[in-house]
Amino acid sequence: MHYFIANLCCNLKFIGEPFQKVQLEVHKLLSGRTVVGHSLKNDFKVLSLSHTRKMTRDTATYLPFRKILNLSRTPSLKLLAKQLLGIDIQNGEHDSIVDARVAMRLYVLHRKQWENYVRSRNR
C-alpha cells in the first residue's frame, strides 16, 4: 500500500509555478495512494482536488479518536498528539512537517483498527 503524507508534497520547486501545474502534479502524486493527514478537506479544497473517502485517513474525522477522548467535536491535532502520543506540538510557530509526521504516527499506531474500521464502513 502506498501512502502520501499531507503537507509534504509542496516543496520549494513549486514556488512561482502556475497553480494548474502544481494541481496536476499533486493529483498525480495522490492517484492510487492512501492520503494520511489532519483536516484533509481543507488541503483538498485549497488545491481544488478531491480524493475518495476509502483512500483517505484523516485524523480529524476518525470517529474512534473522538470516542477514545470522549469528544463530541472534531479534535485538534494538538489535542490528539498530547492525549494519544504524549507529545506537545504547535507551541508557538506552526510547522506543517511536524503536523504531517504526527498525523502519520497516529495512523501507524492505530493502523490495524483503522483499516478494519474503513473496511466495515465500505461494505
From TrEMBL:
It comes from the Eukaryota. Coiled coil: none annotated. GO terms for molecular function: exonuclease activity; nucleic acid binding. GO terms for cellular component: nucleus. The keyword Translocase does not apply. PANTHER family: RNA EXONUCLEASE 4, RNA EXONUCLEASE REXO1 / RECO3 FAMILY MEMBER-RELATED. This is Probable nucleolar exonuclease, putative.
